[in-house]
Amino acid sequence: MNRGVVLCFLAVVLVSFGLLGFAGERVPHEAIVITNDYEFTPENGVCSGSGTLDDPYVISGWVIDAGYDEYAIRIHRTTRSFVIRDVEISGASKSAIYLSYVHNASVEDCVLIGNWVGITLNFCRFSRVAGCLISDSTDGIHAYFSSNNVFFGNRFEKNDTSIWLDACDKNELRNNYVSSSHMGLYLNLGSEENLVLRNAFVDNLHHAHADDPNLWDDGAAGNYWEGFETLDRDEDGIWDDPHRINSQGDQDNFPLVEHPLVPTPEPATCST
Fold it and tell me: In CATH, which superfamily holds the domain spanning 3-252?
């Protein structure tokens, strides 16, 4: 039995006994490189799935110390659906997860700490990044020429730029927690019509910048911007004045007073 099959079998056993799910209990694996549809194999960390939308290939349960490798997981020019789930990666000199010319991909519940870039998307469509922790990187997510993707429920901490979209249109960024970054969200090179909704921007030097028009609310609610306060006269949880993104009129028209991911400050009291 080859090494890849053994590692996949071990991961399945650990999952069956409920032992996976914490960083110390994932199984070590070397860097994974997949450059065509025929390389979704056990040797490349694929433990299940047939590559369809209903049954995607699954890469799950690994811990990869990239060391001096440029990428920990690199998937390029494939046509099959796949999920990268519950993987911990550190030390990649270029990108922990690099996806290029793929579609219908999903990155879920991964922990990416101390990489140059957490996740790179290059010419990717209809893909999803959800539930990941990405921290201590130059860029948390950096996407190029990628559209119709969803970034949902991720946590970004201590990155130079947490989310950077270059020439990317019609993506959705929802319910992400973006904190302790030099730049929280940067949209440039013609990135337009991206929906930025119900995210929390906390303790960033610059919360967000956009060169071109994007959508910062859905007509009823927008995002939470720490440090932005005006009045909420009707106490509906929405500040009465918009939060300006840039000087060309891009703005969040319904900035949130509170966010479920941000603790409510304790009320002031008089000491006795």
Answer: Single-stranded right-handed beta-helix, Pectin lyase-like (2.160.20.10)
